[in-house]
Design brief:
alpha+beta; Rossmann fold; seven-stranded mixed β-sheet; 26 strands; elongated
Length: about 725
């Protein structure tokens, strides 16, 4: 199966021939494939059906969120067999080393929060029904009975549902810090204690309904916050999973298959066509071409011959190569890139959200007010019961439920709006960071451009020449040959009868047509001249060579997105690992004044860091493995859905469609969302300014405080919905 061109060359050229099954248990094989281009339920069904029909496959399950398929198969089934099966139904696939991935791939945190929310909601509904009887005038033993029944419902429900708050509060207190969960825990605890006290003394008021309603509202905010995030995975972890799990090592007795962990410096390793380099090293035998776009962003394959150095992660395209290892394991360029990402991740984690900054000011004030109310009323009345009730009312009415909902309610509304426009928000603070962006850095290949060559001069050739070229191109896995094949077939061309076709690794394809030698390939091999653009040369017999010229076409919406950003006053920079002429030409075409060519992954990350040090808030838009460190180092980041898994994981936002047009709108929406968050904080602040004096004055029972708290939460939620 010929590799398919895509915006992610590593995915298309990846491991049809080299990918090997991961470690297999004696009874069955467990294989994990990345399928980066799936996007809907129909895609899932197509991939699963194709794999399940393959001989030896016991089950195949697609995870749409992770863009992966997990396969259980007979022990003799390998990923080498299954990758072409997925490609055969129109989807790209490459093997992942599942031993390098986290075992916790399921959304356990989300399910846990949802379960606790359901328990709190069910308990709240039942307690509210009991409370109606008390509010309607039940007295004496009847009232006490309803209170005790409420207690038996609420106590286990609150103990179970409120655990996320209790754990966070305890962790903060252990290190001498305060966070939002400390006043939440105190408010719930005081409401329960005062309610039990009142019930034991046959008091008129108990506040079990307030305690469980408080828990329910806060869990709602916590779950909304969680829903704005995708499954949390480390980009460095994903990079490690892209490494080849096994390799062919050459020994005195022949060729043996070993784990990459067993490779050592100076080992000789055979890399077959279509395979990825497992180590850094030097070619000692064979000629081929290398796809380095994975690491450097170079558009065109590079000629590979003895003496040429290679890096882990590069793809061998056309011929078998023998590599002498110079760096293995953690010393390879791929691992060094993973280390860059890990460093960048730790830097971004220091960003403090608006909610966290509010909590630092809010929590101490709440505790002080409640404590002062308790002391003041105890001194004034001498009644511990009254003082405790008022202290509980102050804590409940000032409980940061509105603040707890202020951020997640807005981010959920904004995320929904952007999702309809083709943008998936992954990180909880992404919108806040995106709203601050004043500089946008674009990668070139696969981001601003489609990443696949496009034939530009089909009409310059006779039909006979096109038929010969098509016959030769179909026999090659080279990206230019694949592009020529697609263009010729779209034009209704059929291949000529060319015999003795063979691909000369690193040079091109040759054959015999009507007794004449025909060649399609490099200019130096065919005898062609110089071309100002990317070209593949055709020579028929002794005739003059002719050039098929190619260009890397712009991605949909690229011109519109760049123009809109420049018009809004945002600084735009183009940064690519491609050659200087290619980058300069694209920069001129898009009116981008600042650009950087031939940039290595470290160069991109360093440039982002330098811009940050200058006070810029950088949005990085990229799709390749060479972009992951820059994506993570940037203040905010976006990657297309067609990007490599590692790039998608490193980014804050995934562009679901093929067009870049929604990017300017994403920045505008993020700015509006941040304004809504600040408005919600203002609403919550004014609510407290009005309500707290009433609670301190003893004019609000804990029940009235709970109702007031609920009304502020509803107001905050309604304000957030304005974003839609």
């Amino acid at each position: 199966m010929r590799p398919q061109a895509s915006a992610c060359p590593a995915c298309s050229a990846a491991p049809a021939a080299e990918a090997l099954a991961e470690y297999q248990a004696p009874s069955e094989a467990h294989i994990t494939l990345s399928v980066p281009t799936i996007h809907c339920a129909a895609c899932m069904s197509t991939v699963e059906n194709a794999l399940n029909q393959h001989s030896g496959v016991r089950s195949a399950r697609v995870n749409l969120t992770l863009k992966r398929v997990s396969i259980e198969a007979d022990p003799d089934v390998t990923a080498q067999e299954l990758v072409p099966v997925v490609e055969g139904v129109g989807y790209e696939a490459h093997e992942l080393d599942s031993t390098a991935l986290s075992a916790t791939q399921t959304d356990r945190a989300g399910r846990d929060l949802l379960m606790r929310l359901a328990v709190a909601g069910f308990a709240a509904m039942n307690v509210m029904l009991l409370s109606i009887a008390v509010w309607a005038g039940a007295e004496g033993p009847t009232r006490d009975m309803f209170h005790w029944v409420s207690a038996f419902i609420v106590l286990p429900a609150v103990a179970f549902s409120g655990q996320p708050f209790y754990r966070n509060a305890w962790n903060a207190l252990k290190v001498g810090q305060l966070n939002m969960d400390v006043p939440i825990t105190l408010a719930i605890g005081l409401a329960i204690i005062t309610s039990l006290w009142e019930t034991t003394l046959s008091g008129e008021h108990a506040y079990f309904d307030a305690a469980i309603a408080l828990t329910f509202f806060l869990l709602t905010g916590r779950y909304l916050d969680h829903r704005t995030r995708s499954v949390a995975r480390s980009a460095a972890e994903e990079l490690a999973a892209l490494e080849v799990p096994r390799a062919y090592r050459l020994t005195e007795t022949g060729e043996e298959q070993v784990s990459v962990t067993e490779l050592a410096v100076r080992d000789l390793i055979r890399v077959r066509p279509g395979g990825r380099m497992p180590v850094d090293g030097e070619i000692t035998d064979g000629t081929s071409e290398l796809d380095r776009s994975l690491l450097t962003g170079e558009t065109l394959p590079v000629y590979a011959a003895p003496g040429v150095t290679v890096s882990a992660g590069e793809v061998n395209l056309t011929g078998p190569l023998t590599i002498r290892a110079s760096a293995v394991g953690r010393d390879t360029s791929l691992h060094r890139m993973a280390d860059l990402v890990a460093v960048a991740e730790s830097g971004r984690s220091r960003y403090t959200s608006l909610a966290d900054r509010a909590a630092k000011l809010y929590a101490p004030g709440v505790h002080i007010l409640s404590a002062l109310a308790f002391v003041g009323w105890y001194i004034y009345s001498g009644d511990l019961r009254v003082a405790l009730n008022i202290a509980a009312a102050v804590l409940i009415i000032t409980c940061p439920c509105a603040l707890g909902l202020a951020v997640p309610a807005v981010t959920t509304a904004a995320s929904g709006r952007l999702f309809k426009r083709g943008l998936l928000i992954k990180d909880s603070t992404a919108l806040e960071r995106l709203a601050q962006v004043d500089t946008v850095v674009f990668d070139k290949t696969g981001t601003l451009t489609a990443g696949a060559p496009e034939l530009t001069n089909l009409g310059d050739f006779t039909r006979c020449d096109l038929e010969i070229a098509l016959a030769l191109a179909e026999a090659s896995a080279h990206p230019l040959s694949h592009s020529l094949t697609l263009a010729a077939r779209d034009a209704g061309i059929h291949p000529a009868k060319v015999s003795d076709i063979q691909e000369i690794p690193g040079h091109g394809t040759q054959g015999v047509w009507k007794g004449h030698e025909v060649r399609l390939g490099r200019a130096t091999w065919v005898g062609g001249g110089q071309s100002q653009t990317t070209a593949a040369w055709l020579r028929v017999g002794e005739g003059a060579p002719q050039a098929f010229t190619f260009t890397d076409r712009l991605r949909d919406g690229a011109e519109e997105a760049v123009a809109a950003l420049l018009d809004s006053g945002v600084r735009v920079i183009l940064m690519s690992g491609d050659t200087t002429p290619a980058v300069e030409a694209l920069a001129k075409r898009l009116n981008i004044a600042q650009w950087m060519a031939e940039a290595l992954p470290q160069d991109k990350a360093n440039r982002i860091t330098a811009l940050t040090d200058e006070g810029c808030h950088v949005l990085m838009v990229g799709d390749g493995l060479n972009d992951t460190a820059a994506l993570t180092a940037a203040h905010a980041s976006i990657s297309p859905a067609s990007a490599l898994d590692a790039a998608r994981v490193a980014s804050d936002i995934v562009l679901l469609g093929s067009t870049l047009a929604p990017i300017p709108d994403a920045i505008t929406t993020a700015q509006k969302a941040t304004r809504r968050i600040r408005e919600n904080f203002t609403i919550a602040t004014w609510y407290n300014i009005i309500a707290v004096p009433l609670a301190i004055a003893g004019l609000c029972s804990p029940l009235i405080a709970a109702l007031a708290m609920s009304s502020s939460s509803i107001t905050v939620s309604l304000n957030a919905l304005r974003l839609r």
